[in-house]
């Protein structure tokens, strides 16, 4: 087996591990939102319990990136792939943390009757999941054009959050009893907004791999 062949295998293994982490994170987002919508504390607990697995797998990816750099001394595009791998893993792990935050909110309010039907949160969640999936698809194909396209959804996510903020503020002003629950829903919205920002970061790293430049798409 040639040295280059072994090196290519290491890069491919890193690529597959990042995609596996991405799949785990997508599942965490989906379950956290479902737990909130369905008042399902058991599902929320699944998300929380699985966070240690995601954290451990992220560290495994970090270690692999460092090992490849130390043993192979990569240059140019190969080095960009590995550096981006480190950054992608961090963004994905932080997305999972936000899913855990949402699951913890489910545990706090699942036994309550919600002050309003959940409409904006599921809408935001669908857009956010589309952004994460699209960012990972762009990573698979190293498609800068697709990466830039995906980030345009971030403005829509921000717009829904602002609309939700105004509506929930009205609920709080109408009745002080609504303040606790409305605040929890705002925390959920903020977590989804942050997930969209991390998806945008992933898109930036796709462009970095492809073109060797770091564009700030979180404007």
From TrEMBL:
<protein>
    <recommendedName>
        <fullName>Phosphate-specific transport system accessory protein PhoU</fullName>
    </recommendedName>
</protein>
<comment type="subunit">
    <text>Homodimer.</text>
</comment>
<comment type="similarity">
    <text>Belongs to the PhoU family.</text>
</comment>
<comment type="function">
    <text>Plays a role in the regulation of phosphate uptake.</text>
</comment>
<feature type="domain" description="PhoU">
    <location>
        <begin position="18"/>
        <end position="105"/>
    </location>
</feature>
<keyword id="KW-0592">Phosphate transport</keyword>
<dbReference type="InterPro" id="IPR028366">
    <property type="entry name" value="PhoU"/>
</dbReference>
<dbReference type="Pfam" id="PF01895">
    <property type="entry name" value="PhoU"/>
</dbReference>
<dbReference type="InterPro" id="IPR038078">
    <property type="entry name" value="PhoU-like_sf"/>
</dbReference>
<dbReference type="InterPro" id="IPR026022">
    <property type="entry name" value="PhoU_dom"/>
</dbReference>
<dbReference type="GO" id="GO:0005737">
    <property type="term" value="C:cytoplasm"/>
</dbReference>
<dbReference type="GO" id="GO:0030643">
    <property type="term" value="P:intracellular phosphate ion homeostasis"/>
</dbReference>
<keyword id="KW-0813">Transport</keyword>
<keyword id="KW-0963">Cytoplasm</keyword>
<feature type="domain" description="PhoU">
    <location>
        <begin position="121"/>
        <end position="206"/>
    </location>
</feature>
<dbReference type="GO" id="GO:0045936">
    <property type="term" value="P:negative regulation of phosphate metabolic process"/>
</dbReference>
<dbReference type="GO" id="GO:0006817">
    <property type="term" value="P:phosphate ion transport"/>
</dbReference>
């Amino acid at each position: 087996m040639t040295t280059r062949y072994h090196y290519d295998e290491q890069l491919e293994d890193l690529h597959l591990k990042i995609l596996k982490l991405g799949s785990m994170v997508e599942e965490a987002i989906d379950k956290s939102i479902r737990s909130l919508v369905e008042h399902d504390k058991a599902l929320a607990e699944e998300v929380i319990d699985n966070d240690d697995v995601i954290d451990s797998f992220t560290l495994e990816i970090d270690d692999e990136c460092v090992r490849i750099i130390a043993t192979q001394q990569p240059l140019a595009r190969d080095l960009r792939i590995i550096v981006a791998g480190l950054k992608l893993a961090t963004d994905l792990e932080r997305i999972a943390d936000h899913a855990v935050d949402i699951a913890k909110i489910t545990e706090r309010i699942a036994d309550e009757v919600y002050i309003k039907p959940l409409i904006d949160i599921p809408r935001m969640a669908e857009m956010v999941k589309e952004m994460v999936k699209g960012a990972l698809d762009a990573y698979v194909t190293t498609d800068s054009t697709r990466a830039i396209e995906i980030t345009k959804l971030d403005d829509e996510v921000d717009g829904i959050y602002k609309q939700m903020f105004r509506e929930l503020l009205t609920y709080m002003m109408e009745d002080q009893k609504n303040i606790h629950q409305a605040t929890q829903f705002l925390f959920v919205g903020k977590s989804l907004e942050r997930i969209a920002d991390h998806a945008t970061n992933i898109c930036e790293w796709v462009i970095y791999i492809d073109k060797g430049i770091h564009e700030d798409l979180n404007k």
